Amino acid sequence: MVDPTARAVTWPAIAAHHTWIEGQLDESVTVATIAQRLRDDHGVPVSESTVRRYISARFADRVAASKATMPRGAVPPDDEGQVESSVIRPSPPR
Region (Disordered) spans which residues (predicted)? Predict the structure, then answer.
């Protein structure tokens, strides 16, 4: 596997704001907003995809935790229903 930091030329500029990015993630700020604020407020010329890759690599545990889901358990019969849209047919005219 290739180390993404080896080819990331702008990562040192992003890394200078690592603590700030961590604070933004703590406040549930989106990656798009973080990238925009890095450009506008901090003068870091980076794309959103570069910031996304940086966050995925440097905050891997946090990213994995945010994608984890918990099983919801059993649902009593008749509490929920599912409709197959491909099966629904219009009623015949009367």
Answer: 65-94
